[in-house]
Amino acid sequence: MDHAAVFAEHRPRMLAAAFHITGSRHDAEDVVQDAWLAWARVDGASVREPGAFLGVMASRLALNAVRTQRRRRESYPGPWLPEPVVEDGSPEWAVLHSDGLGQALDFVLTTLTPEQATAYVLRKVLDVAYDEIAGVLETSPAAARQLVSRAQRAIAADLGALGGGQLERDARALERLGAAVAEGDVEAIVALLSPDATLYSDGGGRRTAALRPILGAEKIARTLLGLARNAGLRITPALVNGGAGVLVQELGTLTTTITLHTTDEGVHALYFVRNPEKLASIDAS
Known about the structure:
Interacts transiently with the RNA polymerase catalytic core formed by RpoA, RpoB, RpoC and RpoZ (2 alpha, 1 beta, 1 beta' and 1 omega subunit) to form the RNA polymerase holoenzyme that can initiate transcription. The chain is an alpha+beta fold.
């Protein structure tokens, strides 16, 4: 077995799994690098399904990374949002963008326990059997099933039913919302939002952002109109974490990525990432 060739083939899938668990591009890349060091010592002849083996390995390492950094995230100033990964044609992140899960699901995963998030990714993204999930989490298959079930219930409670066409629905909603904001039409903005809509803004203490989620359609509408008054705005559509989004530049500097999630009631959540550290890898030119 050519270890390097096999690893390269499955690297995008490993990156996607590690990212869904950690919510961080940097951490996912570190996880996959650690997985390579471990994989290089594995006897390839003993591995029947390298893709599944590597996916599980990356997930286990990602779980360890999240456990290590949990206290740091708990002291983070304001909401902690997953890092935006913008589609730029790189094959490295092709799986993340093609799975279409979007930043909304990645955010909900960060609100779960690390074990619940890892169990969900292993089962629903990588299609790993429950006995193997139990091995990763050092628990029983029955407990692993329960972790996946709890994760699914939490995701459904926050995002509703996840089905096909989410990317297209979110893209249409983002376009209509942008048009309403450009026209300064408060009523039109409110009509596009669900009554219990929430706006999350992550500045990381390095850029102006709301330290608490903004709740309600009316408050969000006025917040959006206030932001639209900033000078030199340039807004560009983009695929962010496999979902619909836009890049916002102010006077030539990328300051924000925006994504959203729609349900039958309208735009249910908006996610503004403004922390410069989380935007550093994005080429907005």
